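Run log, item B.
One chain of 287 residues. Sequence copied directly from the ordering sheet:
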Amino acid sequence: MRRDSIFYKLFQQSPSLLFELLTDPPANRSSYRFDSVAIKEPKFEIDGVFLPPESEGKGAVYFCEVQFQKDEMLYERVFAESWLYFYRNRDRFSDLQIVIIYPSPNLEQSDIYPFRNQLNGDQTHRIYLDQLGDIRQLPVWVALMVLTTLDDDKASEEAKYLLARSQQQSQRESRVIIELLTTIMVYKFEGKSQREVEQMLGITLKETRVYREIKQEGREEGREEGREEEACYLILRQLTRRVGELPQELRQTVESLSLEQLENLGEDLLDFNTMSDLNDWLQVIDV
């Protein structure tokens, strides 16, 4: 399930959502802008950055990391990226805050001793979604975040509840909530058919923007896979003509190449005369 992209879609729709998780949010939280930034030399990509309004002078910049897999070097990376960006843009900000969202504490980095000061201070906030309480008692935007962590049976039940609850919002907010909730459920139950997900939620997916986007995404992935299959078939035929019938293991190695690698192989194989030429080529690209 692509949780990172789901969370960042939530933040794009409602940047103030991040501050719902904090006990001491900034007074101008509704004016913050969600963005992603890049830092050169060394190159860092920070996906979740909440920028204060420039019209109000210097403000605190908030960095957000959504972590659903164990990463034993997470804090090394997060603190390095955040402080480097703050250093490069010191004239724009008065402070920095770091928010790390986990589904539960057991996914936190094991060795946190070197970061005891940062983690125990007031600049780093660790949010554990399974400790936020009953999903039905949470603000609807926070509830959508918690929905991503639930077991399938529980998720289906709570998704229908949140759909009904969305009707209490304004028309615009209700539409956005339905789109995001549908996104979560389609990715969460990607093994189910369209009809099964529709029956689960009691809505028609083809009427929602997210289903159209996912369907288009599937078409594009299908076209990409089709090009790879076609290229692989042609390359294998050419290799057979150049160096003879390939052993099964070597054939499987060629079939595992990316489209770009297959295209490069298609050019280079014109110089092959023996099977060892192919083996040498594969060793060079470290397959």
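Observations after the first pass:
- The mean pLDDT is 83.
- Residues 209-243 form the longest helix (35 residues).
Flagged for discussion on Thursday.
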